[in-house]
Amino acid sequence: MNYRIIGGKKLSGTVQTNTSKNAAVALLAASLLNKGITTLKRVARIEEVRRLVEVMVSIGVKVEWNEETGDMVITPPKKFSIETIDTMAAAKTRSIFMFIAPLAHHLGSFNLPAPTGCDLGKRSLGSHIDALARLGIMITGAPEIQAYRVEVGALNPTDIVMYEASDTGVENVLMAAALVPGKTVIKFASANYMVQDLCVFLESCGVKIEGIGTSTLIVHGVSDINKAVTGYPSEDPIESMFFISLAATTQSQLTITRCPIDFLELELFTLGHMGLKYDIGEHYTAENGRTVLADVTIYPSKLVAPPEKIAPRPYPGINMDNLPFFVPVATQAEGKTLIHDWVYDGRAKYYLELNKLGARIEQLDPHRVVVHGPTALCNGDVDAPPALRPATLILIAMLAAEGESMLRNVYPINRGYENLHERLQKLGASVEAVEG
Questions:
Q1: Which pLDDT score is estimated for 116?
Q2: What is the pTM of this model?
Q3: Of 265, 290, 101, residue with least CA distance to 213
Q4: Fold type of domain 2-18+235-434
């Protein structure tokens, strides 16, 4: 699929933040811990989730997904059939790695297809491998079959220090520890939104977790989970940030509802330093009973470069997935903006794709770029990078640029956003999905 875009239009209206991709994939994996029926509410109908559902069905899981509400009912098999796993679907998403911990409790030893997902350079799985080994789950590479080999020994609770505050690494450890009776302590844990969602879900399964929202989690594992459980993926701060960036870059007034504000405050504060005018409405609570939401209105503003570099940090810092959205905003800001993307070895290079649309972005090294602004963005014909966030930056820039543009091969965007072009059309954007 490609997007044909006629840009340069002022957008207006209200858009609702959908539930999180990253929370959904974590709860899908965690549902495999439960011998009973799991219901997940309002699961985003995106390609990343579809790939994991294909994998689950291929190993014997029954999945009923309501196309209207997004609600999903998951019924586990009496025995998982790992030998029939859909290897093509598994290889398309890095999230498949989160199936290791739950399947280890059911299968003991097995092979899991090696994951891919976004092409952002080398992304070490060492934090998963090291931490799971401490619990008794050993992972080794099997390159001859493009898979990982999982061997399960004696499982015992323990103290774990995460040498990297990896979101998915901590999620894997949480799922492993959930079915190891006793107390497991996870230090230097990520406290990001999807980790908190997983903790809330595991508590509904009967697993007590202390320290939710902090860097030290204490998991009181249980011997069995067999009950009817309902999980609520919370709203996606990265999707909220997409629309915030879109409004700022196109000089439009937009209201984004159901924003998980605790995971956007520093981003908004930083944009405020760049001159962005915005209002945050009253706080209210998401369906999971924990996540704090607010409606955010963005106003057309005269933008300036921030006084300091913009860089991500573990929560409560700027989210690593929100960092790219500062790039198109910076193209419209007076001065030089330094973006330091230290997390990924290969993501900053994709920011240079905006130069094809008239931006002036200079790469200093594999992790740092300087954005010179303001620049008048122009139309173009660009292939979407094989990575979700960088692909959406080009879409934002094309919507801000005068004239007709073509963004080709938008599967990376569909991995993380549901019906995005249709939602943009309701805001007054001219975005048409075309084949070929």
A1: 62
A2: 0.94
A3: 290
A4: UDP-n-acetylglucosamine1-carboxyvinyl-transferase; Chain (3.65.10)
